[in-house]
User: Fold this.
Amino acid sequence: MKSILKGTGVALVTPFNQDFSIDFEGIARMVDRVIAQGVGYVVALGTTAETPAMSFAERKRILQTVVEAVGDRVPIVAGIGCNNPLEVIEQIHLFNLRKVSAILSVAPYYNKPQQQGLLAHYRMIAEASPLPLVLYNVPGRTGVNIAAETTLELAKTVPNIVGVKEASGNMAQIMRIMQDKPEDFAVISGDDSLTLPLLACGLDGVISVVANAYPAEMSRMVRCALSGDFAEARRLHYRLLPVMQACFKEGSPSGVKAFLAAQGNIQPYVRLPLAAVSEALRREIEQTVKAW
Assistant:
């Protein structure tokens, strides 16, 4: 499983039509584009896909669309997570996961559970899941941090938990995990701009937002770093850095959708409660795309 999670995964956005209905043909085109440009696997139904603003029926059809578009070309990871472990388990059994390799499950949000609660939450889900589970730690969005000690305890005691997407931005915490994790436990960057230094610390790759817009460059940067070519990886990192900064300046996925729209790939629409980027940022993004 660790080999599947090596390299660049892309947290797929969901293209919307002007009436905010889902552009399913656009999803299939996005899948074809990112695979053709070198990503190692795709993540469907992540939070970048705006899944909190969707019905279960919509999410089910999105996963089906991604599965059909991917075929057997690359592995698929499905995002299934919320603040209720029983609901996560129910959804795992309601989705058709036959072509899915692993589940990415975000830490429970809003509840602000203690670390013991996080341990019990993930143990319950892993015990019920027919697929390997990847933890997703993103405290800036969930309001709770999965401590390094909690991640390590789950990694060492729950065989079905095979990795973590770490988006805490806490380098010390991530290095603590790297220092003491089981060898076959995958640690994946969840921050595009920190990916290069984290790869230097031994991480396995990234689940990237920026790779929606620049899949070839992000994938090559990661491949170079993993192979030890840090000179080329640094060159690509600094070329991508303005894109990374602009993508998150006014929130995600509004920023990356503005990049994709400027490239002519999808429309920039996001669903409420998100809003489109400001006019000033839209112009900045368009200039960045033109100068690329």
Remarks:
- The first helix runs from residue 24 to 36.
